[in-house]
Amino acid sequence: MALRRMVLEIGMGTDIRGGDPTKAAIRALRDALWHNALTVAGALGKPADAMHVDVTIGVPMPERVDKQAVLAELPHGGGTITVVEGGLSLPNESGTDVTLIANAAAVVRLDVP
Asked: Which tens digit of pLDDT belongs to each residue from 36-55?
């Protein structure tokens, strides 16, 4: 059998104050995941933990993202993460702080024929 793409979920997250790319990335992944209740695994006779999720995050300062903290947000199964330069960085008026916006794509895969 092979891992086959079942669902693509997309989300957006921010860190309004503090410029923390991990916080923005976690919020983006939550946004992607928490608008759905996936029942596809059960419909195919698979446990929810059989899901594999490929997460891609686009955020400023991708090298500062704690990848394991982001993956810890997955409610079922396991996953992989790729973090790339993306999103937006918006400085405040005085230039002393920044708002970060991250985008997330979560591709849910199941091992099916």
From this structure: 887 888 888 899 899 999 99
Distance CA 110, CA 2 (A): 8
Dihedral sign, CA of 46, 80, 25, 102? negative
Alpha carbon distance 32, 103 (integer Å): 9
3-state secondary structure of 12: strand
Ordered by where they begin, the domains of the chain are 2-112 (3.30.1330.20)
pTM of this prediction?
0.93
State which amino acid sits at residue 75.
Answer: P
Q: How far apart are CA 53 and CA 45, in angstroms?
A: 18
